[in-house]
Amino acid sequence: MTTAIPPGMERPHLIGVGGAGMSGIAKLLAGRGAAVAGSDSRASETVAALTALGVTVHVGHRAEHLADDATCVVVSSAIREDNPELAEAAGRGLPVVHRAEALAALMADTRAIAVAGTHGKTTTTSMLAVALTALGLSPSYAIGGDLDAPGSNAEQGTGDLFVAEADESDRSFHHYRPEVAIILNVELDHHANYASMDEIYDSFETFVDRVRPDGTLVINADQEGARKLTARLAGRPGLNLVTYGEAEDADVRVTDLRPDGLTSEVTVELGGRTLTFGVSVPGRHYAHNAVAALAAGVAAGVPADGLARALASYTGVRRRLQFKGEAGGVRVIDSYAHHPTEMAADLEAIRAGAGEGRVLVVFQPHLFSRTQELGTEMGQALALADASLVMDIYPAREDPIPGVTSDLIIEAARHHGADVTPVAAASAVPDAVAGIAGPGDLVLTMGAGDVTELGPLVLGRLAV
User: Fold this and answer.
1) Catalytic choice (122, 124, 216, 243)
2) Whole-angstrom distance, CA of residue 151 vs CA of residue 39
3) 121 among known catalytic residues
4) Which GO terms describe its biological process (predicted)?
5) Measured between alpha carbons, how far is 6 from 107 in angstroms, rounded to an integer?
6) pLDDT, tens only, 110-122
7) Is position 206 annotated as part of the catalytic site?
């Protein structure tokens, strides 16, 4: 297993180093001995964790933060061209490396497993990383979220396996050359970058074409978009194709799935054998993620029995149905779900664990473009809750779109019979939750923005 620093990345500067993907790159490079520096817009737990690893982090973006001896600048798609550090790099003629290119360089000499597709990349990647680690295989990994603590989204291992979350949102997953690829789902998302399903299919085909000769693609057998992609891939030379799911024709077939509160037990048929193992997160969606992880690990040569047992050691990832606490008899759980399919899957999973209590949601829409395209479906998903509070749209990297507000979601939700209340200011959420929640209820803070910060505030208010 090589732990060499990729050429030209001996002294990298990462703009937005505190982000989920960028912080992982920083940790991996530091683990290989690079002199890593970077900047972020604000201090955070992640920034503190990177500093503890010896990474030099500047708070704020200024041209002078770029060291004189920097060998390259690493950016993500979220960094705008007018960023002063990026402009300084251009003025000096320094190489500018996209985050995915940096990750591809780190994966180049490993046996890579890349996890792509909508809804479940972080969870599936995490499950594999945790299970392979539990088996003593010391994988390297890069995940789009923290397993259990800030900075745990990446690790430089000593084994030859490298598990990585492969982001299709901006086509950056085209940089990777995996031995095993997973495609969980194929849906029209990321509307700023894809105009149609044909563009989505073309992009995934490009990703599959990057799988190493005689490598394996593990793909969903239940979801319509994934099945259509499988049909388009039929007969690809040098590609082993393994399907998974509940469909009768799945190669790794789920034959039983039993929920048990906030956990579940899944039984699969694989290679003529039956395996039953536990999944420590609730719901059908997460059980299927575990089956995808099992199929990929087996394709990489990991024994199925041991891997199935090791998958039970996975206990979750930050923001993926993460239990935040209980106060006044009310449990609070945080969800990263921001696409209608994810929202519905998490609400169905939580319903199974809520018992006789109600499921109450605090939802923050993410991105104007996503709300414009999928606001109706978001509202329909919220009808699965007993009551919802809907916040203003979290813009992230986007500028507002005229006429696109949370009202699109609220109106759609009410049309589907949902009990929905708009709450524009985040500061008003704790009191609003306290006004409707009672003992036995379960509150889900949901969205990809800063709604995640409200869980502790809600718990504090409920405790009064």
Assistant:
1) 122
2) 16
3) yes
4) cell division; cell wall organization; peptidoglycan biosynthetic process; regulation of cell shape
5) 10
6) 999 999 998 789 8
7) no
